Amino acid sequence: MISILFSAGLLPFIILFGSLIISITIHEFSHGFAADKLGDPTPRIQGRLTLDPRAHLDPLGTLAILFFWFGWGRPVIFDPFNLKDPRRDAAIIGLAGPASNIILALLLSFALRVLPSSLLLFVTLTSIIRLNVILAVFNLIPIHPLDGGKILIGFLPKDVAYEWNAILSKYGMIILLFLIFPFTGTSPIFYFLSPIISTILGILIP
Predict the structure, then answer these.
(1) pTM over 0.85
(2) Most CB within 10 Å of its CB: which of 69, 149, 174, 204?
């Protein structure tokens, strides 16, 4: 991403990087908010119930975004022993992050249609919409450590869930790295997610 600073200029870089910061902050805050509402005070105690990006950005993950276009925020930690139904509630907490990104994208899509036309506004809002959709769809992949892994375990039958949890916990990161690594110049996961992301963006961006 930092190459944009030299190729396109400061303003496009600020818009894109700022959009990523907003998207990650909303995503991680929503995980903490859901956990808090479901009875676990851990995110509140750790200072994660805030929209201050400094509480949610991981230094290494942020640098990875700048240099490699792929990064991460600080994972929200929750204690399953504080939850009424740990498996179900963990799935809800996992779903809260991607859901918040989709909701934000929907709100900004509505704003694009009602606010006065402006090139800067259009570029800024569409940038945030795109990144939120990408973040949501990517995180819904049903593999640990992504949110989709927690969601999958939460909604599978109990006996199947424990088996899959053991498998995904052990091999999930390896599978994820295999899907992300661009063996042929493009990440394998791109071929699966690109049509989904394009369809959603076609609806949201006028």
Answers:
(1) yes
(2) 149
